[in-house]
Design goal:
- With 728 residues, the chain is of the alpha+beta class.
- The protein has three domains: 31-177, Roll (Ubiquitin-like (UB roll)), CATH 3.10.20.70; 186-580, 2-Layer Sandwich (Creatine Kinase, Chain A, domain 2); 595-724, Four Helix Bundle (Hemerythrin (Met), subunit A) (Up-down Bundle).
- 52% of the residues lie in helices and 12% in strands.
- Strands 9, 10, 11, 12, 13, 14, 15, 16 and 17 form a nine-stranded mixed beta sheet that branches. Strands 1, 2, 5, 6, 7 and 8 form a six-stranded mixed beta sheet that branches.
- β7 and β8 form a beta hairpin.
- α14 packs across α18 and α24 (646-677) runs antiparallel to α25.
- The longest helix is centred in the last third of the chain and has 56 residues, at 582-637.
- The radius of gyration is 29 Å and the shape is globular.
- The structure holds adenosine-5'-diphosphate and magnesium ion.
- Adenosine-5'-diphosphate is lined by residues 210-212, 214, 281, 294-297, 343-345, 353, 468-469.
Length: 728
């Protein structure tokens, strides 16, 4: 009803942003709601503390007695902060986070009430898990998945509940979440990278993957959003004519942040501080009402947990400021969507960033080793990386000239391109003393200087090297980073293992010196994987053609993109790397393809309903006003009315045309949906949704948006783009 829209507008316009109070010094707030190592040190006995620390850093098992101690001190710490409940906190394949709260409170046989939380409750729980997606792993009748404590991610207090990060696995041991395969992938890359590091430094015992994400999002007024069933049910607008002013003036990016949004951000960052999420950067993004929050990078598992937690916190904090936060990749047509860059690097326990050029030729050779192995891994598995970011919502963004295309390529900048070119010319076989010196001085020795001004950022690249890290930019804003980060670390682990074998082989059977062997293998890698390197405009049509010639994949939609997950080679890769079993890989495919189908099904239903129940009746109402008007004109002016009412008659006709189109297209869409729903095979079903149902979404929208421009603004029931996007 239009009345609702106007009420919401009035509320939004009159909304007085309360100033956000209570901002204390960040460093003092930081992690005060986290049971981290420094809190543990206070609460645990020395032995228990040591045991937990070695579980965190070296993956050692924690025994029952220690688990009991940890549980009891966690409970005491939580109670001291007014906490009453605890939950195992996990990330099922729905993409959201899940929790089931239990009170510490228990009664004993004699009726005495106590607060109880022991090792058993800390270590393992059995949530009623039948309704989480499992891709057929866990039969519903059995419904037994369990959660198990992940001591590498510290427990935290959120909304008066003690949250314990856990993995979520089926009774039979298969992973049902994002965290389990990620932890396995991180373990594998630690192993593979450490071995390679030892060529350069024997002291390295552990390598950790580091991740820093950049979360983009939109803020819209809560009441205005509530007038839109599409936003409420699908997280994006399925229709709505563009606002006369959109992002064309480019006046929002890095502009001053509107007060109301700023208050939200301060509140959000305050929450982040308490939860130990090291939020650091905030700024406007390209589109109106679009913003970004980015933390300081952390160990990958913790960073992924923090992003999942943040997405939840954002929603809650937004509500306090009368906002709705839209994390969807494409909430509005014709203005930029949102992504979540995943910045990734590898770091040793000796404190060296393996993707940062060093100060000596030796450390640069180490840098080049990891740099080139990453390039090779991405080249050989580009389609898998594309698959790891595939979703119905990210399909809107990739290739829409605002985000990287669906072709994966790597940008490395002019200086490093030159270094690779030089390395490619290294003599095959043993190197002459002169060549060795040359390489040391002119190629490997020169990297630090040149990289200092490596500021040439190519924003159109899906995977860019940015000085000391790779930035995976094609990740969608709603994604659980665990998915792409599992993939990336797995393919790189595999590559590093191969590299080690090849180098060892040259050293052992050909009697090469270590450096010589490394140079020789790297040279071949550069030659073999050059085709993935691209420095030009990733948005251009020419790149699509060029990429096709190079044999790079260009999977434009999710059903196409996901197929590679079922390839034999993919399953072999995951099995070999101990990241996922065949059953797990196949189950994930099923979950993801089903999610795709469900998303499109919901969107298609919602649009059908809005078109028929909101748009058409509104158009008819306005048409009746026009008809009455023409009739009135006829009465007054008698037969001359035709001239006076000509424009109205044209409008009446045009409206009828759009109504006809909407109605017939909605009917056709429903029929296509029915046909798709009848398909057993989920891959074919997803394809039917993609190719047969989805096109109607745009068709129907087109006519609805035309009507929006014709119909009296006072009758229009849905909040318009200009209202959603420019309210301050
Ligand atoms: P941008 O210009 O893309 O916004 P920033 O320098 O602001 O880049 O960094 C973006 C993200 O990258 C931040 O989360 C930051 O902590 C993270 N980052 C910086 N260095 C590294 C690194 N070595 N490994 C992983 N992430 C990193
Ligand atoms: Mg970035």
């Amino acid at each position: 009803m239009a009345i609702l829209r106007f009420q919401a507008l009035k509320t939004a316009i009159n909304y007085k942003p309360s100033t956000f109070e209570g901002e204390e010094k960040r460093s003092e707030l930081f992690a005060s709601n986290v049971f981290n190592e420094s809190t543990m040190r206070q609460y645990l006995t020395g032995d228990a503390f040591k045991s937990v620390v070695s579980a965190i850093h070296d993956g050692k098992k924690i025994n029952r007695v220690v688990a009991d101690q940890v549980a009891s001190s966690m409970k005491n710490w939580a109670l001291s902060k007014g906490v009453t409940h605890y939950t195992h906190w996990f990330q099922p394949l729905t993409g959201a986070t899940a929790e089931k709260h239990d009170a510490f409170f228990e009664t004993l046989e004699d009726g005495i009430a106590i607060e109880k939380f022991d090792g058993d409750q800390l270590v393992q729980q059995e949530p009623d898990a039948s309704s989480f997606p499992s891709g057929g792993i866990r039969n519903t009748f059995e419904a037994r998945g369990y959660t198990a404590w992940d001591p590498t991610s510290p427990a935290f207090i959120y909304e008066t509940t003690l949250c314990i990060p856990t993995i979520f696995v089926a009774y039979t041991g298969e992973a049902l979440d994002y965290k389990t395969p990620l932890l396995r992938a991180l373990h594998t890359i630690d192993d593979a990278a450490t071995q390679v590091c030892r060529y350069f430094d024997k002291n390295v015992k552990k390598v950790s993957a580091l991740v820093g994400w950049e979360q983009e999002y939109f803020l819209v007024d809560k009441n205005l959003a509530a007038c839109r069933p599409d936003i409420t049910l699908t997280g994006r607008t399925l229709l709505g004519h563009s606002s006369a002013k959109g992002q064309q003036l480019e006046d929002h990016y890095f502009g001053s942040i509107p007060n109301r949004a700023l208050n939200f951000m301060r509140d959000l960052e305050n929450q982040c501080m308490l939860l130990g999420i090291p939020a650091k950067t905030r700024h406007n993004e390209v589109a109106p009402n679009q913003f970004e929050i980015a933390p300081i990078y952390e160990e990958a598992n913790l960073s992924v947990d923090h992003n999942s937690l943040l997405m939840d916190v954002m929603g809650r904090v937004a509500a306090r400021h009368n906002f709705k936060v839209l994390l969807h990749e494409k909430p509005f047509a014709n203005i930029n969507g949102s992504g979540k860059h995943n910045n990734w690097s590898l770091s040793t326990d000796t404190g060296v960033n393996l993707l940062k050029p060093g100060k000596t030729p030796m450390s640069n050779l180490q840098f080049l080793t990891f740099f080139i192995n990453t390039i090779k891994a991405v080249y050989e598995n580009e389609e898998l990386l594309r698959a790891s970011i595939a979703s119905a919502s990210n399909d809107h963004r990739l290739g829409a000239n605002e985000a990287p295309p669906s072709i994966i390529s790597i940008f490395i900048g002019a200086q490093l391109t030159k270094v690779l070119n030089d390395l490619e010319g290294v003599t095959k076989g043993k190197l002459s003393p002169k060549e060795k010196t040359d390489l040391k001085l002119n190629v490997v020795g020169k990297i630090p200087d040149v990289l200092l001004d490596n500021t040439d950022r190519n924003r159109t690249s899906p995977f860019a090297f940015t000085g000391n890290k790779f930035e995976f930019r094609a990740v969608g804003s709603t994604a659980n980073c665990g998915n792409p980060m599992t993939m990336l670390n797995t393919i790189i682990a595999k590559q590093l293992k191969e590299f080690k074998i090849e180098v060892d082989e040259l050293i052992e059977s050909k009697n090469f010196k270590k450096d010589e062997a490394v140079f020789n293998v790297l040279r071949e890698y550069i030659k073999a994987s050059k085709d993935i390197l691209f420095e030009g405009n990733g948005y251009g049509k020419e790149w699509e053609e060029e990429a096709q010639k190079r044999g790079l994949s260009n999977n434009k939609n999710t059903p196409e993109a996901l197929k590679v997950k079922l390839h034999k080679s993919t399953i072999r890769l995951f099995e070999e790397m101990n990241v996922m079993s065949k059953v797990e890989v196949e189950a994930r495919y099923e979950v993801e393809i089903n999610a795709y189908i469900n998303h499109l099904q919901i969107e298609s239903r919602v649009l059908g309903d809005i078109a028929r129940n909101h748009i058409v009746p509104t158009a008819v109402k306005y048409q009746n006003i026009l008809i009455k008007n023409v009739k009135g004109l006829k009465e007054i002016f008698n037969k001359d009315y035709v001239d006076f009412g000509k424009e109205q008659l044209n409008l009446i006709k045009a409206i009828s045309g759009h109504i006809d189109d909407i109605n017939s297209k909605v009917t056709q869409m429903i029929n296509e949906r029915k046909a798709a729903n009848g398909i057993e095979d989920i891959t074919l079903k997803a394809e039917a949704y993609c190719n047969k149902v989805k096109p109607f979404l745009n068709d129907i929208r087109y006519h609805c948006d035309k009507l929006e421009l014709m119909v009296d603004d006072e009758l229009w029931p849905l909040t318009k783009y200009r209202e959603l996007l420019f309210i301050r």
